[in-house]
Amino acid sequence: MNLEELLDFFSKSSYEANYARAKSTRTCAMCGQRAESFKNASSKLEYEISALCQKCQDKYFSKKD
Questions:
Q1: How does DSSP assign 15-47, residue by residue?
Q2: What's the rounded Cα separation, in Å, for the pair 22 and 5?
Q3: What one-character DSSP code corresponds to residue 58?
Q4: 3, 13, 15, 64: which has the fewest C-beta neighbours closer than 10 Å?
Q5: 56 CB burial (10 A radius; 0-12, 13-18, 19+)
Q6: How many structural domains compose the chain?
Q7: What is the spatial distance between Cα 19 and Cα 2, in angstroms, rounded to a whole number?
Q8: What is the per-residue pLDDT across 3-59, written as a single tens digit (0 to 9) for each?
Q9: Residues of the domain holding 19
């Protein structure tokens, strides 16, 4: 997925339900994997905002050279 696909994911009508389910089960709204380990406080806060696990955060938010 690229950034455009990520934005599409966030704008889908099903995102709200996926977000709620992810937060209640401590999983990722995008990939469904457990979201228990984060690199730092910023990444943990990002999970609280977007419900994306560390792996998905790295995939979509890390800088590429």
A1: HHHHHHHHHHHTB-TTT--B----SSHHHHHHH
A2: 19
A3: H
A4: 64
A5: buried
A6: 1
A7: 20
A8: 888 899 999 999 999 999 999 999 999 999 999 999 999 999 999 999 999 999 999
A9: 3-61
CA 50 to CA 47: how far, in whole Å?
Answer: 5
Long-range pairs of 2-7 with CB within 8 A, sequence gap ≥ 24: 3/60, 6/60
Higher per-residue confidence, 62 vs 8: 8
This prediction's pTM: 0.85
Are the beta carbons of 31 and 55 closer than 8 angstroms?
Answer: yes
